[in-house]
Specification:
- By secondary structure, the protein is α/β, with parallel strands linked by helices.
- It has two domains: 170 residues, HAD superfamily/HAD-like (Rossmann fold); 91 residues, no CATH class.
- The chain contains twelve helices and six strands.
- The chain has a six-stranded parallel β-sheet, sandwiched between helices.
- Helix 1 packs across helix 4 and helix 11 packs antiparallel against helix 12.
């Protein structure tokens, strides 16, 4: 039976549908550790590496690539010229570093392949059977390639990714443009739409966009931070979530620590 309280669900890619968040994180660490070593040596200071636990989630997770470079370098007091998106990967510019990260990500992806989260795929298929529209929203310009490698492109009605953001001049997360464009293409109203995100910037973007239910997927032990950034419901996995439960959460949601949030907490505790 088609749900009564929502019309569509928008999924983030990395860390929600596919396990490529770890590949992105590894590529970022290789990039930034090299930059930080060079900077520390030139200034006669100790090397402080890129921290996958703090730096990744605070400065780059969910953001468009060049914004991620700028955000993290700014946190370490490093200023570089922005450059041009066509800069080669060895250029000492924000764009050059971003392009180097992209090349590293592609190399790691070819070596490791793409692993999907089967609980998410199960939910996607259940939503498809229930007639609920589905979109994939990612700041990554590699989104389509990742979906093709995983063989799951057909599970989504709409794809909005980093290529679309660049083409339309839209802002990336934590701005809501990515999700609002998905809703527009799905022909659904944001208050009638669910967003599933694992990144703090993504949760903040969905909240800023006025979406009806924002689910924070906590696979990194940051449940409280997800709530603080605007998640209505926080779960550790989607293995016990189905279209009917989503309908109940949407029905019960009224902001803050709602009955939906309490139900999600019980689900997490039971798991």
């Amino acid at each position: 039976m088609r749900p009564a309280h929502y019309d569509a669900v928008i999924f983030d890619l990395d860390g929600v549908v596919t396990d490529t968040a770890n590949v992105h994180a590894a590529a970022w660490k290789l990039l930034f550790d090299e930059v930080l070593r060079i900077t520390a040596a030139s200034q006669g200071e100790p090397f402080a590496p890129f921290d996958l636990g703090c730096d990744y989630h605070a400065y780059v997770d969910g953001r468009p690539r060049y914004e991620g470079v700028q955000s993290f370098l700014r946190s370490r007091g490093i200023a570089l010229d922005f450059g041009d998106p066509g800069d080669p990967p060895d250029a000492s510019t924000v764009c050059g570093l971003g392009n180097r990260k992209d090349a590293t990500f592609a190399e790691l992806l070819s070596q490791q392949g793409v692993r999907v989260f089967h609980s998410t795929i199960t939910l996607l298929r259940a939503l498809q059977s229930a007639g609920v529209r589905r979109a994939i929203a990612s700041s990554s310009k590699n989104c389509r390639h990742v979906l093709e490698i995983a063989g799951i492109e057909g599970l989504f009605d709409v794809r909005v990714d980093g290529l679309v953001l660049a083409e339309l001049g839209l802002q990336g997360k934590p701005h809501p443009d990515l999700f609002l464009r998905c809703a527009e293409l799905l022909d659904v109203a944001p208050p009638r739409t669910v967003v599933v995100e694992d990144a703090l910037s993504g949760v903040a973007a969905a909240r800023a966009g006025g979406f009806g239910l924002v689910i924070g997927l906590d696979r990194a032990g940051q449940g409280e931070a997800l709530r603080a950034h605007g998640a209505d419901v926080v779960v550790e996995d989607l293995d016990r979530v189905d279209p009917r439960q989503l309908d109940g959460w949407c029905r019960d949601h009224s902001g803050g620590m709602t009955s939906a949030s309490r139900a999600a907490d019980r689900t997490t505790a039971a798991g």
